[in-house]
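We emphasize that the prediction below concerns an isolated chain of 640 residues; any contacts that depend on oligomerization or on bound cofactors are therefore not represented. The input was used exactly as deposited, without trimming of termini.
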Amino acid sequence: MLVKAEKKKERKRYRRKRIDQKEVDASIKETFARMETSKVRRKYKKVKEEEEIAEEKRLIKVSEFISIGELSEFMNVEPTEVIKKCMEMGLLVTINQRLDFETITMVADEFDYEVELLPEYGIDSVEKEQEDEEGLEERTPIVTIMGHVDHGKTSLLDFIRKSNIVAGEIGSITQHIGAYEVEYSDKGITFLDTPGHEAFTAMRARGAHITDIVILVVAADDNVMPQTVEAINHAKSAQVPIIIAINKIDKPNSDSEKIKKQLSDIDILVESWGGKYPSVEISAKTGQGIDELLELILIQAELLELKANPDKTAKGVIIEAKLDKGRGPVATVLVANGTLDISDTFIAGQYYGKVRAMFNERGKNVTKASPSAPIQVLGFSGLPQAGDTFMVLDSERETKEISLKRQQLKREQDYRRIHHLTLDEISRQIKFGTIKELSLIIKADTDGSVEALSDSLLKLSSTEKNVIVKIIHKGIGTISETDVLLASASNAIIIGFHVRPNVKSRKIAEKEKVDVRLYNIIYDAIDDVKKALEGLLEPEFKEEITGTAVVRDVFKISKIGNIAGSYIESGKVLRNDNIRIIRDGKVIYEGKINSLKRFKDDTKEVAAGFECGIDVENFNDIKVDDILESYKIVEIKRKV
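Result of the prediction step, given as a token string:
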């Protein structure tokens, strides 16, 4: 009985053990399943994160008016690829050409990138509420004069203002944007005079975006030029009304109908030809048609119903900025809305300030600036860029905070654009050969001039010929000792445009042997840099055949060797020439002429139709009927 009871207990323990083991197995299985699920989830999460990162990488945040070169850096592709893609899309661009946001989006889409416009930090807090219709008043129209260089834009404005702007400009070329107020028929008109040279494309673009009406000046004795077409495109993209002013009709070879025909070819049909663009024939020299042009401006302004609220806090655009030796940063502000007063706190681009003083274009002190008024403002913490938005804020503390944050964001954006050298880049440089660089430091009197000169000089680079312009520093103001030392350390040339070095800088430049070039006209600077680049190019060597001779006899002379008794068939053989010996149509030797004789006398050259003796250096196997071909190597300078 005891044995049976014992066996029964044993079976119970065994069954319980089996149940426990099953529970353990099930628990282990469940744990492993949970671990597997967690692992899958982690893996899935990681993949999703990677996809999100990849998607984020395909999004680029840019500000308006970035160049092709900058866009290629953001997308991490070669500039040549971007230019090639633009050409396929029908856009003729250069590496330094600035693009508007619409074009940037279109180009980036071709490389599977999405583009997001980067708004200025703090823009939400400084944007003003919607205009109150009751507070709006009629304002002065802002008119931009555009056109090709030397078509008479400044002369037209000169006549309107009854002043002499041209006399104050180097080479009669407008080097900066000028903003001027005039009065006609008891109504005001604000004129912006933009430079006509192609180097000032960016400044002209800014001009078109801050204007109400564009006056397109075309010379009747010339043609519709590329810069004229460029100005039309800027005005069209800004959706600004255009008035055509056909200038220089007083000249004997003027042909205004030819100009109208050329304008019609580019979809600018004037009203007299049944189109929508008003036109007027003028002479900036005699004043013919000027009154009619001013009437057209006022009529167009009435149609546009231009209004602004002078009681609001001021908002405007920086037209130009420069560093004045006595007054510090000075900027020309075009007030778009509100009234600007002395002591107003403002933000412009990444800099803040307080209005210390204001001057009109005549240099006269003013205390208020109403809508559409161009005014010079003192009190900036730094030098803003042309095209920056100018806004007045109530809080000085908020202004400083926005300014510091914008400066930080600008530094971060610049850092993201830094392009580190990769193995592919090194491989490409090896493939195309050693690229030679011309390092430059550019200093000018205004921000617009710095940008325009930089753009023009960078265009001279040629990757095909392996020479590039590298601008290591650009700034505004006098050429300082720091600039000279930087040029010395980096083996750079300093280009000064409308600025000069101080006494200390000049002495250091002489000591360090730094080349400082000073210019007043942009053409001269471009030409000199172009010549310097051509000096960096390796010259090409071309072979030029000078004469051909046939060996008629061979003379053996002791201690000298065999002399070729030759007859000159064409050209002339010179004693210092290289010579090539051809036998049975094959070149068997190339060397130099050791001596050249006519009878027993040495001679410098022998012309066709004469006989001579030729001793070939280090070659003694001369035979009758050998052809001797004399040649010289000509060095050809390569052009950029």
